[in-house]
Amino acid sequence: MKSILPDQGNKVPQVRVGLGDIQALLSMLTGYLTYLRKAVPASPRRATQIRTLERLRRRLAALLASSRREEETPIWLTRQEIQALNEALSGFVQVVRIVIPASSMRDETLREIEGFRDMLRVMLPLAQS
Questions:
Q1: Residue 11, helix vs strand vs coil
Q2: Above pLDDT 70, what percent of the chain?
């Protein structure tokens, strides 16, 4: 994940991601959505989070499938999407720490995910709902 920048015309955050990053985000979202559906009790909050993450997953999949792929692609995120993505990545990191044995590769990957989460948290005040 390259960077997060505010859009010049308004306050909707823009995330610039590479194609490999989109694939990684899709994999993490897919895994986390499975976890939400199977392990988290039904509630209005869970339903909202699933809808938000599914919408974001579909947008990312469409970007990845598009024929006009650029090395770095901008994605605009709402406050709700930023919060849901942050929670999904946090949950993913927790599961990886439990399931995957410690290694320098695992720890480096988790540091990158945590760095991306830090950028998401910085953008929250700039996001509109």
A1: coil
A2: 83
Dihedral of alpha carbons 26, 1, 103, 93, sign:
negative
Say if CB 7 and CB 123 are below 8 A apart.
no
Neighbouring C-beta atoms of residue 42, cutoff 10 Å: 9
Domain ranges of the chain: 3-126
Measure Cα distances from 41 to 6, 28, 46, 105, 117 in Å.
Answer: 35, 20, 8, 33, 25
How far is residue 43's CA from residue 96's CA, in Å, rounded to a whole number? 25
Assigned token pair, 102:
């410690």
d(CA 123, CA 129): 12
What confidence tens digit (pLDDT) does each residue in 91-102 have?
Answer: 999 989 999 999
- pTM: predicted TM-score of the whole model, two decimal places: 0.79
Residue 10 class from Cβ within 10 Å (0-12 exposed, 13-18 middle, 19+ buried)? exposed
Alpha-carbon distance of 86 to 90, in angstroms, equals 6
Query: Phi/psi of residue 43, each to 5°?
Result: -165, 165
